[in-house]
Amino acid sequence: MSKNKTVLLSECPLCYPKGKQVLWENRALRIIRIEEPGYPGYCRIIWNTHVPSMLGLSPDQSAHCLSIVMATARVLDRLLSPKQVNIASLGNKVAHLHWHVLARFENDPHFPEAVWGPALKPPSSALPTLCTNTLISALEAELGPPNPPRNLA
Ligand SMILES: [Zn+2]
Fold it and tell me: Residue 123 C-alpha to ligand 1 middle, in angstroms?
């Protein structure tokens, strides 16, 4: 049984992400940027240990996780002045706790629908741009300096 569990964990794309730049991290979680055409401000907050949802966290852990989610939302709102900031934690396809935090614009490909369905229009060239270094600096200003994550120790 434990062998099956090990195989599943080794295939988890959030335990073993490939080619994702970490914007900010601490011992509990990390924030990465999702490069998606039409979405200049799309971040994912990933809990470092493999728990399927917020229900797997202690009250203190879930409060910490939500504080980082909200800080990320404030940063995107301040940097991009979007129509809305969408915040979602689904876990239906990848049952490893993560949050999507993304700036939404009336001219983004899916607006006003959720980003996971079919696009309603192509990405607009009028969408704002956001330099990754600007995003990193704003996250550090909001959250303080990053700490090495426990999983890399
Ligand atoms: Zn995982």
Answer: 31
